[in-house]
Amino acid sequence: MPTVRTWDELFEGCEFEAVHLELRDRYDVDDEYFADWLAGRLTAATHAGRWSSFCSTVAAATARGVQVRRLRVVSMPASEYIRYEHAGTPATVRSGEEVRWLDRAAAPDVHLPITDLWVFDRSLVRWNIFNGDDRFLRFDDVEDPGLAARLVDSFDSAWKRGVPHQDFVI
Q1: Rounded CA gap, 142 and 100, in Å?
Q2: Which residue has the higher pLDDT, 28 or 145?
Q3: pLDDT tens-digit map of 3-59
Q4: How far is it, in rounded angstroms, from Cα 71 to Cα 98?
Q5: Which of 39, 87, 89, 121 has a CA 20 to 30 Å removed from the CA of 50?
Q6: Which fold has domain 7-167?
Q7: What are phi and psi of 56, to 5 degrees?
Q8: What are residue 7's phi and psi, to 5 degrees?
């Protein structure tokens, strides 16, 4: 079984670009932070705190000049989980991540893969594999510059249609 690198290893080794494509309307809805958010108990600070480790990693990468972009393709009206993600996104944006949102119905002609993914430096693809109950199963890392370049080209075509986080209304 191939070794799966940690997030820190991936970002520390990244030289110029990391892109993240999210295509699901729900993720692991048993998340304790999500339950607190639904109940009105999650403060903005706690929400940001949940992502502090990731934000530190992204901030270090962007400080070195790495561009980190995330595109969320979502159905509208948004699910409660997407509303929750939207509310927590300012923390990652402050860390240097660029985030755009794309209404799925506004881009039926955009060709995208069917699975969430990361691409690092147009060489490594990290597939995010989930089950039918929205639970994360595993990462599959593939070193394939040709595949990675095609995926980033698809990402870029959708990115152009995406709405920057601060302008996207849920």
Answers
A1: 25
A2: 145
A3: 678 999 999 999 999 999 999 999 886 778 888 889 999 887 887 778 889 999 999
A4: 9
A5: 121
A6: Endonuclease; Chain A (3.30.870)
A7: -65, -40
A8: -60, -45
